[in-house]
Task: inverse folding
């Protein structure tokens, strides 16, 4: 059985009664590290991560899914982890995003809304010889290669 698929099933089973939590990613690395990223509409606490880890670890051991030694790590996505799911975008409305486009350009702006297949940001456009202008831009998500939340220490 595919390890990542089974872990995904176990996590979905565990968080089924916690509608504010959602699975972001499951990755089994060749060095034996099994990384699970879970997030929540209002973040996720250590207690929830520990409960998910215990549930997944118990079942993996019971079912002997992984033959070799492994290290299970359950956490929330770090601030440097790119946004991948519409639900992650929705929880970050109002925050400033750094966006890499498929054509290689980079954009930056405040996330205003998340729609079906697109996001809307407020960005400042500065053209040479003109005053900077703030505009709303709708960006199709299929034109985005990476989006990260930008942290300001101002």
Result:
């Amino acid at each position: 059985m595919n390890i990542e698929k089974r872990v995904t099933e176990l996590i979905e089973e565990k968080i089924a009664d916690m509608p504010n939590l959602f699975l972001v990613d499951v990755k089994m690395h060749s060095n034996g590290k099994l990384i699970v990223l879970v997030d929540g509409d209002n973040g996720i606490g250590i207690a929830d991560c520990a409960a998910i880890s215990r549930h997944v670890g118990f079942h993996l051991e019971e079912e002997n899914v992984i033959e070799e030694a492994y290290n299970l790590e359950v956490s929330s996505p770090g601030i440097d982890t790119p946004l991948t799911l519409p639900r992650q975008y929705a929880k970050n409305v109002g925050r400033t995003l750094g966006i890499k486009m498929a054509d290689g350009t980079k954009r930056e702006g405040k996330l205003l809304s998340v729609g079906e297949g697109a996001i809307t940001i407020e960005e400042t456009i500065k053209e040479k010889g003109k005053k900077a202008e703030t505009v709303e831009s709708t960006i199709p998500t299929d034109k985005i290669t990476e989006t990260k939340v930008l942290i300001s220490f101002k």
